[in-house]
Amino acid sequence: MAQPLSKDLAQQSLDAVTDHGTERSAALALSVSRNTLHDRLVTARRYGLKPGGGRVASSNPSVMGATIKRLEAELKRAQATSAEVDAIKHVIGNISNKVAVRPDVPWLISQRTAPSAPGVPTLFISDLHWGEVVYPAQINNVNEYNLRIAHERMKTLVDSTVHLLAIISPEMKYPGIVVPLGGDMISGNLHDELSATNELNSMPTVLDLFDVLSGVILALADKFARVFLPCVTGNHGKDTRKIWAKDRHATSFDWLLYQFLARRFKDDKRIQFYVPDGISAHFRIYGHRYRLSHGDRLGKGGDGIIGALGPIIRGDHRTRSRDAQIDLSYDTHIIGHFHQYTHMSRVVVNGSLKGYDEYASVEGFPFEPPQQALWVTHPKYRITYRMPVYVDRQREPAVTSWVSVPN
Fold first, then answer.
1. Which of 4-18, 41-55, 237-251 has the highest mean pLDDT?
2. Which of 139, 209, 351, 363 has its CA 20 to 30 A from that of 264?
3. Which residues contact 315 (CB under 8 A, 6 or more apart)?
4. Pick from 405, 6, 374, 325: which is nearest to 162 by CA?
5. Is residue 276 domain-shared with residue 225, that is, in the same domain?
6. Does a structural domain hold residue 398?
7. Does the pLDDT of residue 56 top 60, yes or no?
8. Considering its fold, how many domains does the chain have in total?
9. How high is the pLDDT of residue 231?
10. Are 6 and 49 within 8 A, CB to CB?
């Protein structure tokens, strides 16, 4: 006849489930089958036991052995977690505290500029989807994307930005440049298809993009003397199953990338980062109030006529009403996420570096070349020049019978 289960073993099984979260994990920790563990839990409930009630030593060798094994596993996990935390702290240091506070950026406020000065340019960089692969054969050969092409397009982005701003002001009379980083910097593992087809996994992708963005920021600092970078996270760089409302920033590879960059340039007085803990960053240029967010929280939907404009405009209206209630009113909302360059007076929607992809093709979205948004904020006239920066290789113009202006 089988001996009845002791209260010690019943309590230990109950505590193991509490410690490990699931019966499966608890059974593995105790080296018993799930059926055995389940039977023990039924007995524990019959005894009226509660979790945590058996944290005492037992003379039963079986219980003592299982307890020792559980404590050794807990110690190992704690040591591993501690080592990871120490490593991250060593890499990041205290930079997160420094960049989470909105810095004082005098050159964005002062209006003591020459009458001929054009204002402050803003180059909006977002939706790079670094590491993703777009296969041309699957989208009628209208686009291709991989790390090699991404590197080329980032160089084109910087060169074209400088060229366009030199057309506006040949003497480059700019006090500096604002470069919002708007999230979805890496492709990430948001969908199973991305996990299977990305060129690199998330961590190597972050390292590769870190090197590229470091060069971009240095080049812009050398050309414009000052660079201000407000930063927000997107939805693709998450390292959780679902995007968290709490600690969204600290569970995103976007945020980690920004912290690496901020630490890289912490001693360069020309470069200032602003990485808030929330989903938005508010800043001013000559009194014009900007709100930067990725845009994934504005809403979903749209239709075949107005496309994404419906959720964008409705979402911005809700956000304006809410922000006004907490003294965060803004003039222009700048967002990414939708990959459709649209510059309205109240909302600026960025394009993407990767351009048209398989998802856009399957969903029937309109074709759009890879591009990023560029504009200038004047101290008197506010937003003046608005222009997309096309980052793909130039195509030969189509030959048509239309009347043309010769070169």
1. 237-251
2. 351
3. 295, 297, 298, 299
4. 374
5. yes
6. no
7. no
8. 2
9. 97
10. no
CATH number at residue 281: 3.60.21
Rounded Cα distance between 239 and 250, Å, is 9
Cα–Cα distance measured from residue 189 to residue 201, given in angstroms and rounded to the nearest whole number: 8
In the structure encoding, which two tokens stand for residue 298, read together? 């504005």
Residue 69 has what DSSP assignment? H
What percent of the chain is modeled with pLDDT above 70?
81
Contact between residue 119 and residue 384 where contact means Cβ atoms under 8 Å apart: yes
Residue 332 and residue 191 share a domain? yes
Give 317's contacts (C-beta < 8 A, 6+ positions apart): none
Task: Report which DSSP code applies to 89.
Answer: H
Q: Which residues pair with 376 in a beta bridge?
A: 121
pLDDT, mean over the chain:
85
Q: 3-state DSSP call for residue 229?
A: strand
User: Is residue 71, in this structure, part of any structural domain at all?
Assistant: yes
CB–CB of 255/234 below 8 Å?
no
The first and second tokens of residue 281, run together, are 């960053």
Task: Print the domain residue range for 332.
Answer: 98-110+117-390
Amino acid at 188: G
List all residues 6 or more positions away from 352 whose beta carbon is below 8 Å from its beta carbon.
Answer: 126, 127, 128, 129, 184, 336, 339, 370, 371
| pLDDT surpassing 80 at residue 303 | no
* Three state DSSP letters for 293-332: ECCCCCCCCCECCCECHHHHHHHHHHHHHHHHHCCCCCCE
What are 311's two structure tokens? 């959720």
Shared-domain flag, residues 312 and 199: yes
Please give the span between the terminal C-alpha atoms of the chain, in angstroms, as a whole number.
100
Would you place residue 395 in the very low, low, confident or very high pLDDT band (cuts 50, 70, 90)?
low
As beta bridge partners, residue 280 has 293
Per cent of the chain over pLDDT 90 is 55
- Which runs of consecutive H residues, i.e. helices, occur in 121-201? 147-168, 192-197
Q: 3-state class of 39 per DSSP?
A: helix
DSSP state of 287: T
Output DSSP code: residue 64: H
In a domain, 19, yes or no: yes
Q: Give the H or E element holding residue 228.
A: strand 227-230
Dmax of the chain from CA atoms? 102
pTM for the model stands at 0.73
Q: Please tell me whether residues 134 and 276 are part of one structural domain.
A: yes
Cβ atoms of 46 and 5 closer than 8 Å? no
